[in-house]
Specification:
Strand order of the largest sheet: 1-2-3-4-5-7-6
CATH architecture: 3-Layer(aba) Sandwich
CATH topology: Aminopeptidase
Largest sheet: 7 strands, mixed
Number of domains: 1
Number of strands: 7
Number of helices: 5
Distance between the termini: 36 Å
Strand content: 25-35%
Length: 156
């Protein structure tokens, strides 16, 4: 039975394989294995006892801002609510940490909008959030859309 949980260190290589496949399709930025080990605590996985079905990370940028990043769901599991469950996990963690806003840079803004995010102008985000853009082959011609979820407003 699949569940959303924190990953095991023994699953990091499988996490990289999922990310590599999605990066080859242009869906996420590639991540190096040492980077995944260093940041494994940022991640949640959707997994059963034998296989990963998806993953996502919550990367904290500032005291009041965190990024939902590296969201990947295995192709055969897409459209079954796996991505929603993964995003719910990182948004819940952000809420526990009193982070006011979470954001994502995505080519699938409709998915995030269905999950309570709103599209914003990229320039509304602090410059710091674009530090990973240097690694992206589309850097200067980025086609990703910025989406934000205001958690502070939801608490009121």
């Amino acid at each position: 039975m699949y569940m959303v949980r924190k990953p095991r260190l023994t699953e990091v290589v499988s996490m990289k394989e999922l990310l590599d496949g999605a990066a080859a399709d242009g869906l996420v930025l590639p991540r190096e294995l040492p980077e995944l080990y260093e940041n494994v605590r940022d991640f949640y996985v959707y997994a059963d006892d034998s296989r990963l079905g998806g993953l996502v990370a919550l990367h904290i940028d500032m005291v009041d801002l965190a990024e939902v990043r590296s969201l990947v769901v295995r192709k055969e599991l897409r459209g079954r609510g796996v991505g929603r469950r993964l995003v719910e996990a990182v948004v819940a963690e952000a809420g526990l940490l009193d982070i006011a806003r979470v954001y994502a840079l995505t080519r699938l803004p409709e998915f995030f909008e269905r999950n309570g995010f709103r599209t914003v102008d990229r320039n509304e985000l602090p410059y710091k959030v674009f530090k990973d853009c240097i690694r992206c082959p589309l850097n200067a011609e980025c086609d990703e859309i910025a989406v934000v979820k205001d958690l502070a407003l939801e608490k009121e």
